[in-house]
Design a protein that fits this description.
The structure holds 2 protein chains of 2 kinds. Chain A has no helices and 11 strands. In chain A, the strands form 2 sheets. In chain A, strands 2, 4, 5, 6, 9, 10 and 11 form a 7-stranded mixed beta sheet that branches. In chain A, strands 1-3-8-7 form a 4-stranded antiparallel beta sheet, with no helix packed on it. By secondary structure, chain B is mostly beta strands. Chain B is built from no helices and 11 strands. The chains are: A mainly beta, B mainly beta.
Chain lengths: 112, 115
């Protein structure tokens, strides 16, 4: 079954404690991206990757890091989380040159 | 000013009504226009995709793009309770090259279709 997997689905953490949200896909897609969704602000792109070892900033990259060492995985790293990073995070994947993106189920992060 | 503006609603309509959802944008470089549907507690799923100006129809859904007015619409005919969801417009400047990856979303419109 084609799918995008995110872990964890829910996470409550404290300010400054490093965390990683994983994203994995089994569709051999070149393109992967991270978004955050906040009430009244819609979906905002954090980082995206066109292929292995190729990443670029989206609209709100501050406070986040990513890496793309394998085609199937695109982890999102928060080195020192702050309360303003409390949000619903989505990973999305797609084929290069194709518009459709497949979204994961979301990760709800709370930073206290 | 946001690059993409979308009325968040909420919008409540009776079953069978025609629904009109709209977005305006300011970036004239946008060429690819999409509508996503997001059910509660789920990730968005692509509903419609159009390139440049014009109309596209898929069953009960019609997407319209007017680049001269920087305005896009999604129409839902014969709306059903199962259409109740948040609808997000999204736009991109390029489908290929390094610009492909950047998608800009509207805030989303919450739609409820009641029986």
């Amino acid at each position: 079954e084609a799918q995008v997997t995110q872990n964890p689905r829910y996470l409550i953490t404290v300010t400054g404690k490093k965390l990683t949200v994983t994203c994995s896909q089994n569709m051999n897609h070149e393109y992967m991206s991270w978004y955050r969704q906040d009430p009244g602000l819609g979906l905002r792109q954090i980082y995206y990757s066109m292929n292995v070892e190729v990443t670029d900033k989206g609209d709100v990259p501050e406070g986040y890091k990513v890496s793309r060492k394998e085609k199937r995985n695109f982890p999102l790293i928060l080195e020192s989380p702050s309360p303003n990073q409390t949000s619903l995070y989505f990973c999305a994947t797609g084929l290069a040159g194709v518009t459709e993106q497949y979204f994961g189920p979301g990760t709800r992060l709370t930073v206290t | 000013q946001k690059e993409v503006e979308q009325d968040p609603g909420p919008l409540s309509v009776p079953e069978g009504a025609i629904v009109s959802l709209n977005c305006t944008y300011s970036n004239s470089a946008f060429q690819y226009f999409m509508w996503y549907r997001q059910y509660s507690r789920k990730g968005p799923e692509l509903l419609m995709y159009t390139y440049s100006s014009g109309n596209k129809e898929d069953g009960r859904f019609t997407a319209q793009v007017d680049k001269s007015s920087k305005y896009i619409s999604l129409f839902i005919r014969d709306s059903q309770p199962s259409d109740s969801a948040t609808y997000l417009c999204a736009m991109s400047a390029n489908a290929g090259g390094t610009s492909y990856g950047k998608l800009t979303f509207g805030q989303g419109t919450i739609l409820t279709v009641h029986p």
